[in-house]
Amino acid sequence: MNHLIKITKSDGSSQLFEEEKLVNSLKKAGATEGAIDEVVDEIEREMWEGMPTADIYHRAFELLKKRSHPAAIKYSIRRAMFELGPDGFPFEKFIAHIFMMWGYEAITDQIVMGNCVEHEVDVVAWKGDALAMSEVKFHNEFGLKSDIKVALYVKARFDDIVDTVCDYGGVKRKLSEKYLFTNTKFTETATTYGACKDLKMISWNYPRIGNLHELIEKNYLYPITCLTTLTHQQKNQLLSKNIILCKEIVANPAVLIQVGVKDDDSKRVLDEARIIAAQMQ
């Protein structure tokens, strides 16, 4: 094909299509060499000048799903994170699961009194002598980043809270760990500031080790929005019941009936959830 063809990114800008990027994303999803070659060849045959990257993703996902369902699910994880919205509350609960995976107890949507004013804290987590608090920034589009203004704002809020004695889990502690999570990316200036000010920042691809993508895959924290056997409405109903992860459906299959998934469909959903939550391990 003509490798000088331009595609349209999520922020509206144009860039030359790079086959290597598509190949690498398929490799990371665990697709075989044969499946990768077939998907890339088909995409390149169908590609047109100005094709949106979202269309390339959706077509690659559909093609990959026909060849390897588990690989297709892994390929779709980043998109699935955007379905933990639109208000971002499910994403906050997802981040609480990360803290619980780290051995903390964690709750969301807390009001904490600072030295000057009250603050809404998205996630509060504690274990031993440690008390962690996290601001969680959810974005609905790939191109949106959390910039230096966000980092400055979060740091200022934590500075107002740092001397507050909090009582969580029956133990009085002061804030000792400060986090900022986002489902997209940070600007370079924001991460430079965070590193300087001891603000632990985690995005889709930052830091290089321990980023959001890696945490999901290494700890099997696949959200239910990965599932292709559920409708959008059913996913939202499950999220409203605080069912965030595929492994939670495997642990409690009865919840599917509660959101109107019929018996035959329930088995298909449960089988897919097991593949994601167990076989990917």
Structure description:
The protein is α/β, with parallel strands linked by helices and 281 residues long. The chain folds into 3 domains: 6-75; 89-219, Trna Endonuclease, Chain: A, domain 1 (3-Layer(aba) Sandwich), CATH 3.40.1350.10; 222-279, Orthogonal Bundle (DNA polymerase, domain 1), CATH 1.10.150.20. The chain has 13 helices and 12 strands. It has helices spanning 19-28, 33-46, 53-67, 69-75, 77-82, 89-101, 148-161, 188-196, 212-219, 232-240, 246-251, 254-258, 263-279; strands spanning 6-8, 14-16, 51-52, 105-113, 118-127, 130-137, 145-146, 165-168, 171-174, 177-182, 185-186, 200-202. The protein has a 5-stranded mixed β-sheet, with helices on both faces. A 3-stranded mixed β-sheet has the order 2-1-3. Helix 1 (19-28) runs antiparallel to helix 2 (33-46), helix 3 packs antiparallel against helix 4 (69-75) and helix 7 packs parallel to helix 8 (188-196). It is globular, with a radius of gyration of 21 Å. The mean pLDDT is 90.
